[in-house]
Design brief:
Largest sheet: 4 strands, antiparallel
CATH architecture of the largest domain: 6 Propeller
Strand order of the largest sheet: 4-5-6-7
Order of helices and strands: HEEEEEEEEEEEEEEEEEEEEE
Number of strands: 21
Helix content: under 10%
Number of domains: 2
Structural class: mainly beta
Radius of gyration: 24 Å
CATH superfamily of the largest domain: Kelch-type beta propeller
Strand content: 35-45%
CATH topology of the largest domain: Neuraminidase
Length: 237
Amino acid sequence: MATYKEIKGTQIEAVATDPSNPVEGQVWYNTTSNVLKGQAATGTAAWASGGNLNTARNTLGGAGTQTAALAFGGQSPNRALTESYNGSSWTEVNDLNLARNGPAGTGTPSSIIAFGGEGAAPTPKNETELWNGTNWTEVNNLNTAGFSRVGSILSSTAAVAMGGWSPTLPGALDNTEIWNGTNWTETTDMSTARGYAGSGGTSTVAISFGGYTTTTVATTEEFTGAGVSQTRTFTDS
């Protein structure tokens, strides 16, 4: 078998500390930790095709992971359809009790909540449903109906609904509600009312960004779960 020196033309470098900026293919021996190390290339991010939904639709809700997800609701027309994804294909499973588009959703494939959304007319909805891996069950409603509500992701027992849109109210909503697995409780409103925003985080440390008031906004707010929000606005530069 050829040695490293025969292949590379040099011996493995012995160092007391790891190089600060190693290059790809570089190999060294750390004399402090007595560990042989090397710098390797990392993979390149890419999109790959997955199986198509059985029913084409838009403004649907979803939750889960890349290999275990649930898609529910959507339009047009309003749908109650629910499909389960196993990492390669979608399978139709039991429908929502209420057909709607724009619901928010969060949780794991065996325990997901779907809340809010838009019914016919259009009519904002406050219905909340719980998925147990097989069926949807109606549970306690949101206090304020709205569609395209932002849902901060954690689980079906700890979530936050922020903002939203309602044509029967002033339009953009600033309402914030926390879900404890049984009930929704109103808490401190957002600083900027808006619908169609993005979000992330948990029910105690969340972020809401972008959205629509009467115009598209770049506003970002951080939620601590203790009734405090901070507003930060980012502009293009």
